[in-house]
Amino acid sequence: MSAHVIERRTLPTRMAANAGQHMRWLVGGFAFAFLVPFVLADRLDLPRDLYYAVYVVGVAAFFALWVRSTGQSFGEMIRRRWVLALVLGLATAGLLTLIVLRTEDATARPEGLELIGAVMWRGLVYGLADGLLLSAFPILAVFAMFTGTKLRERTLGTVAIGLAALVASLAMTAVYHVGYSDFRSEKLRKPVAGDVIWSIPTLVTLNPIGAPIAHAGLHTSAVLHSYETDTFLPPHE
């Protein structure tokens, strides 16, 4: 039997194993997204900024391990349609800022260095981590499951994968917010609806920078406009 025939016969097995590996990481992502807020914020009641530090490090480590263990090229991801990803990320951040300004009441906020620190930490850093876990990771993982398949070669197939990726992102957002006690209510609808918007840049470009930029815009506007919000920037007192 020729090596070409052997390779052709074993290819589906390798692809199935690769898809299964991404699926396991996706399931692990759901568990991680729920357990971190549930254990650290809801049960242990860590101070908010300390909680953010643990969360940000955890998200970065989780994403890096997924990239490495599944043989992804982070450099290739970042370069993929990066101009469009940046433009869409900034445009979506602007749209989310407008939503915050029109739907949330203005509250008191700190001034000076404390405000700058809050914008950098709670707005940008925490926002980037949220966008990476809630949107970029599930979308990229779903598309990676179908790498090399005939479905990816067809327009309708790509659209179907995109819809599945969006559903995965919506589910990740819901699971994460359910980890906070106050989101086990009708409040859950707000972040799930928001996920449809902040997922667009990464969903369109398959570049991981798009959704985090959009999400950072949302968090930054929340810090500046509604610092004492009970909708954004969980956990809430």
What does this structure look like?
There is one protein chain. The protein is built from ten helices and no strands. It is an all-alpha fold. It has one domain (3-225). It starts with a helix and ends in a 12-residue tail after the last helix. Residues 1-17 have low confidence and may be disordered.
Write the layout of secondary structure elements.
Elements: H1 3-43, H2 48-69, H3 74-79, H4 82-103, H5 112-145, H6 150-153, H7 155-178, H8 189-198, H9 200-205, H10 210-225
- Number of helices, where a helix is a run of at least 4 consecutive DSSP H or I residues: 10
Question: Which H/E pattern describes the elements?
Answer: HHHHHHHHHH
* Radius of gyration from the alpha-carbon trace, in angstroms: 19 Å
Main β sheet profile? none
Structural class: mainly alpha
Q: Give the overall pLDDT as a whole number.
A: 90
Q: End-to-end span in angstroms?
A: 68 Å
Strand residue percentage:
under 5%
Question: Share of helix among residues?
Answer: over 70%
| Overall number of structural domains | 1
Shape, please? globular
Low-confidence region ranges: 1-17
Report the count of strand segments. Answer: 0
Would you summarize the structure shown here?
The chain is an all-alpha fold and 237 residues long. The protein has 10 helices and no strands. It has helices spanning 3-43, 48-69, 74-79, 82-103, 112-145, 150-153, 155-178, 189-198, 200-205, 210-225.
Please supply descriptive tags for the structure shown above.
237 residues, mainly alpha, 78% helix, globular, disordered N terminus
